Amino acid sequence: MIAKRYEPFWKTTPLEKMSPVEWESICDGCGKCCLQKLQDDETDEVFYTDLSCHQLNAVSCQCKVYETRQTEVPGCITLTPDQIDEFQWLPDTCSYRVLHETKELPNWHPLLVGSDKEMLRQGLTVRHYAVNEQTVDEDDWETHIIKWVHGTPEPYDVT
Ligand code: SF4
Ligand code: SF4
């Protein structure tokens, strides 16, 4: 008898049909969505900065107030399956966006590697560059705008 090939849940279950636990496990914990963003008034274009929300632990890349984040930080967005069509604002390495667009998780994902070690090796979390938003005057946030190049940040001059 030939054994049935095991397919992991993210290959067989669309994002919108995942259980809450499966949905949460797709997050790779990069912390990039917790970076502050600026939006161009005229074009609506969204620019990422390297400034992290003050509630992000930049070493673990975990939210310090995860359970109460939306009352602690009113602008915090909770990703839900019904927003899938709006995921283009997420960084292009975000596993929700990648899975939605390509149907494959990247080979560095903790669900495939078993830990975040490959993400850290490739510099794919914000751990090494996030700057606490509270240490920079809002008038200077534009100088912190970045662009993503292969999942890592590079300075971006918007002028
Ligand atoms: S950008 Fe995506 S994968 Fe990274 S922490 Fe945010 S939701 Fe998770
Ligand atoms: S409150 Fe937590 S989840 Fe929300 S943006 Fe800040 S660090 Fe991220």
TrEMBL record:
Taxonomy, superkingdom: Bacteria
Membrane-crossing residue ranges in chain numbering: none
InterPro entries given in the database record: Puta_zinc/iron-chelating_dom (IPR005358), UCP006173 (IPR008228)
Family to which this protein belongs: Belongs to the UPF0260 family.
The name this protein goes by in its record: UPF0260 protein D104_09375
Gene source species: Marinomonas profundimaris
